[in-house]
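BUG: 3D viewer hangs when loading the predicted structure for this chain

Environment: internal workstation, default settings.
Expected: structure renders.
Actual: progress bar stalls at 90%.

Input used:
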Amino acid sequence: MSQLLRVEGISKEFPGVKALDGVNFELDRGEVLALVGENGAGKSTLMKILSGIYSPDAGRIVIEDQEVDVTGPKAAQQLGISIIHQEMNLMPHLTVAQNIFIGREPRTGPWLRDAELNRRTKQLLDDLGVHLLPTQNVGNLTVASQQMVEIAKALSFEHTKILIMDEPTSAISISETQVLFRLIRSLRDRGVGIVYISHRMEELHQIADRVTVLRDGQYVGTRRMDDVTDDEIIAMMVGREISAAYDDRQEVRTGSADVVLSVRGLSTKNLLRDVSFDLHRGEILGFAGLMGAGRTETARAIIGADPMSAGTVTVEGRELHISGPNVAVKHGIGYLPEDRKRHGLMLEQDVTFNVAMASLSANKTPLGFLREGRARRVADSFIKSLRIKTPSNRTNVKTLSGGNQQKVVIAKWLARNCDVLIFDEPTRGIDVGAKEEIYKLIKQLADDGKAVIMISSELPEVLRLSHRIVVMSQGRVTGTLSPDKADQESIMKLATQNIEEVAA
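Structure tokens produced before the viewer hung:
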């Protein structure tokens, strides 16, 4: 393979932070290069330099043996560099065709040529093997299909030869991931060079040819995927050895006296049907299933965020009518949501306020003012114990990395001291080192007698931590597996089971 891209000695400094320090890497034509590192390692900064959003303080970028100056996003596109960000930049009210060619639509004078626009889009989608209609509204598509639109948009630029993908599978299911991987392999076969950023170790061996590791803004090394283990990659990333394979589960008592949360016949108008399970003290109960199976909807119904059409929720032997999340909190149920930015944090507030948010009553004076000193001491204790990387407890939460934002949400519920904790995708978008800390935290919570529900799309994560695993498909529970019966194959068999088979 011939070399397509070479980055030499790239450095970038922001006030008080050296984000990149002499970074090097190479990308060959027709190669998938995984770029990995902990949050704050410099991956995003490097990609923003390559895509023209930032200018480097030092170093050079060479494309096909020609040194180039990437002066902005438009210059990057002209040089053949396209980037697909983790948070998609699509307009839901526009069609697939309009999103792909926005600002570049075929026109005759001021008039848009819709037929030509749709023809070009269909030809592009057909070439990529993507089965979507140009006239479909993007807002009606699944997340996976929206991801395909983003890829088509990136490749619609005539000269695209370098494609950067930032966490492309973070919001799609296992089966949808395989569709995406087939498309990536097809692009690789056509000679496109792909930089693939991911925290999911199991994906790298499936899709990447080589892996480049960054740590603390510096280049650590590049290895062929065939010649490196997960533990070796992780050790390069974090500067210490972490085992990603050991099993954290231990036996937990499941006698009826230990039941903290009991759900019976839970149903909702649109999806859930007769969902029943028990959660015991000191237990981590994993929830597995494909996207749309009803795992998050179950959690939202339990806390009263979505209305139940039937069923009961019992906490500590007492049947409750939970009309909203505030009532759930009063009864000791905390929910760490799937979308932490929309539902878990107040991004414009500081770390202290966000940590104190779920327990304001305990941090208020009789006149209703926040006991700021007490709240800041509590925030400081969790900043230390959870290793939250933040300049101070007064730092605005929106400026923190995704992993540290997630830790702030966890701190909020630990400060409230809830007996039942529901973690929905607790490690999504979080690097390997931070994942290990959260795994240890979840295990410690169970050891301390908390009852934990963990919803995750990462099967290795569910298998590693759960004492039992509830599998859902199409709004129903299709099975509950004990540790000795649970493996990826058995979970996937239940996760793909048709509800008619369950009802039979």
